[in-house]
Amino acid sequence: MNLNKKRRWHCLSGQEPTELDKKVMAFESKGKLVPTRDMIRTPEQIEGIRQAGKLNTGCLDAVEAMIEPGITTQDIDDVVMQYCKDHDCHPSCLNYEGFPKAVCTSINEVVCHGIPKKKDVLEPGDIVNVDMTLDYKGYFGDASRMFIIGGKTTPEKEQLVRVTKECLDLGAEAAKPWGFLGDIGHTIQKHAEKYGYGVVRDLCGHGVGLAMHEEPEVLHYGHKGTGMLLVPGMTFTIEPMINMGTWKVFIDADDPYGWEVISADEQPSAQWEHTFLMTEHGVEILSY
């Protein structure tokens, strides 16, 4: 190893290397990409992120209780804003790099970042992703769910929603301590492509907890044994975006904010997302 090479991992100042330090540095000495120490959460931070995740889950539950044919996506945004007001938390999407609403509502061929609107009335058979991040006392929870409006849609859309959830669950199973992020992406890609689906590559999961978006990037495609080392104490999202057709996407030219992402062939898309904590035994869901 080149001792002059700048290391990502550093032991705490004035302390002897712990067993965790030694294990991470052993991987780093073999040329593996490792996290920085500040990506490993303290017990206090984990508890804060867990509380934010519970509120985020509660807000999605509130949306699930009201979502039905005939409501607008603006109605969903109104519910999120009221929930945040009632629970002393903040919708992190609101005004984030110009995003004008509190939550993302993505219908059918909209892959992600759909903007709530009064004119967008939900129809029976629509599939809708509701994606939100809440900030509670400086800690962040992030998750999204798919909804089938009216409870029934085409067999093709139903399968897409189901398989996308399976991709999330299988990706979580593949996330093991001292494994690699590429293990997650490989597993998701393999399952999605078995059905002829495209795995979106322009967007990804990410670290979350002390900010809405942090290191590392969590790709939903790739190869086993590649990417960053997964170390207990890391918090991140897995959020596969799976298209019925091509994996390619474009930004809606009619969106004045430049946020709405649409599948390139305008076939339906689905997404599920949880926030996870990596533990010594696997992942724990913090927001779902």
TrEMBL record:
Signal peptide: none annotated. It is an enzyme of class 3 (hydrolase). Gene3D superfamilies: Creatinase/methionine aminopeptidase superfamily. GO terms for molecular function: initiator methionyl aminopeptidase activity; metal ion binding; metalloaminopeptidase activity. Substrate binds at H113, H213. It catalyses: Release of N-terminal amino acids, preferentially methionine, from peptides and arylamides. Transmembrane segments: none annotated. GO terms for biological process: proteolysis. The keyword rRNA processing does not apply. The gene is map. A divalent metal cation 2 binds at D142, H206, E239, E273. Its EC number is 3.4.11.18. A divalent metal cation 1 binds at D131, D142, E273. InterPro entries: Creatinase/aminopeptidase-like (IPR036005), Pept_M24 (IPR000994), Pept_M24_MAP (IPR001714), Pept_M24A_MAP1 (IPR002467). The keyword Metal-binding applies. Binds 2 divalent metal cations per subunit. Has a high-affinity and a low affinity metal-binding site. The true nature of the physiological cofactor is under debate. The enzyme is active with cobalt, zinc, manganese or divalent iron ions. Most likely, methionine aminopeptidases function as mononuclear Fe(2+)-metalloproteases under physiological conditions, and the catalytically relevant metal-binding site has been assigned to the histidine-containing high-affinity site. Removes the N-terminal methionine from nascent proteins. The N-terminal methionine is often cleaved when the second residue in the primary sequence is small and uncharged (Met-Ala-, Cys, Gly, Pro, Ser, Thr, or Val). Requires deformylation of the N(alpha)-formylated initiator methionine before it can be hydrolyzed. CDD domains: MetAP1. This is Methionine aminopeptidase. Belongs to the peptidase M24A family. Methionine aminopeptidase type 1 subfamily.
